[in-house]
Design brief:
10 helices; about 70% helix
Length: about 200
């Protein structure tokens, strides 16, 4: 049962909504244009905000559903509580390395948000507010995501158990790894951002 839950979480994570939405809407494959990342931010570069929104919601939803299902299995079948955190990491790894799309996935920010809200709505809210604050000041999505992921295990230390802190620390390391090119550009002052709309 434990293996089944983890495999299901990974398979849910492997559903790349950026690719699926692009195919349904007749848009270019997000892996072949812009940043090459199959995520909501790159979907904005198609000029279709609706596609970006659907991608964002889909990637968040799969993270939430995977953790919710694991929590249900823990309660229903008396499985170890740590399985919830295992499912959180499994769905995240599925997004990063999707079996359905040649193991070439996104950077995991939206899926991580879904995971956080499923683990703790308060923790999810704190991290989203952190992201929004950094983005409002810098207009750089990658920097906002890195800061928000960094504070997640810190806030979890005060809100949740040690297993949650450890799982979120691993998630943070994975997010930083997937953003390594962005980090290089940030350090060089070359990372692009979103311009503020003129009033």
């Amino acid at each position: 049962m434990i293996v089944a839950v983890l495999v299901l979480a990974y398979l849910l994570g492997s559903l790349s909504f950026a690719v699926l939405v692009s195919r349904v809407m007749g848009l270019p494959d997000p892996r072949s244009h812009g940043s090459g990342n199959p995520g909501a931010t790159n979907m904005l570069r198609t000029g279709r905000k609706s596609a970006a929104v659907m991608t964002l919601l889909g990637d968040m939803a799969k993270g939430w559903v995977a953790v919710w299902l694991a929590a249900y299995a823990v309660t229903r079948f008396g499985l170890p509580h740590e399985l919830v955190y295992g499912a959180a990491l499994a769905v995240f790894l599925g997004h990063l390395y999707p079996v359905f799309f040649g193991f070439k996935g996104g950077k995991g920010v939206a899926t991580a948000v879904g995971v956080l809200f499923a683990l703790s709505p308060m923790l999810g809210l704190v991290c989203v507010l952190t992201w929004a604050t950094v983005f409002a000041v810098t207009r750089i999505s990658s920097l906002a995501a890195l800061v928000a992921s960094l504070v997640a295990p810190v806030f979890a230390y005060f809100m949740m158990d040690n297993a949650a802190v450890a799982a979120l620390a691993v998630l943070t390391v994975l997010i930083f790894w997937r953003h390594r090119a962005n980090i290089v550009r940030l350090l060089a002052g070359q990372e692009g951002g979103f311009k503020k709309k003129s009033s």
